[in-house]
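Handout, section B. The chain below has 190 residues.
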Amino acid sequence: MYIDHRTSRQTGSFIDNKPNTKVIGAVVALITAILIFAAIKGVFIYFPSNDSDTNFFALCIIIFISAFLIFGAVFITRIFCAGTKCRYEIDDKGARFSGKDKEIYICYDDITSIGVTPILSFGRQVGYDAHISTKTKIHNIRFFYPKPTINAKEEDTPFGLMKARMEFIKQQEDKKYSDLLKSETKSRRW
């Protein structure tokens, strides 16, 4: 994350993952299991012998084919489920999220709420699923860390920064409003 202290602009990058990765992974795993079963069945049909050398050769072929199919399935799943690298820029007025196929600009005045839930993979946090509600639309952004992190905190994400900026802007507006009220009550007393 880069912070420009002169303009209080913050930029960074993250991975926006596709929402259907679990379905793609399950389909590829099912197809791989079916192909391994077919390979086992085909090898034992092709080598129907009680000879130990033939059975050992058939077992080696099955192991080789199974390993090839499993590595191929992992490779295919990585290709189809790989996310796109996205960038974010947060300044005093709003936040811009830009990726390969979409760009979102959200002004702080339009935001009604920000909901953030952690995404876990094998019990380890790998990112956040954010729902940013504006006056006109709900934006869903899946934030995955570009590299593995151990101490993942919501405050270090663009959504945590947006929440902090919104709180700061709200405090400034409340302070201006209270100062305005104080000055009005002072002017009425005289």
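Note. Strands lie at 2-4, 9-16, 84-90, 94-98, 103-107, 111-121, 124-134, 138-144. Compare this with the example in section A.
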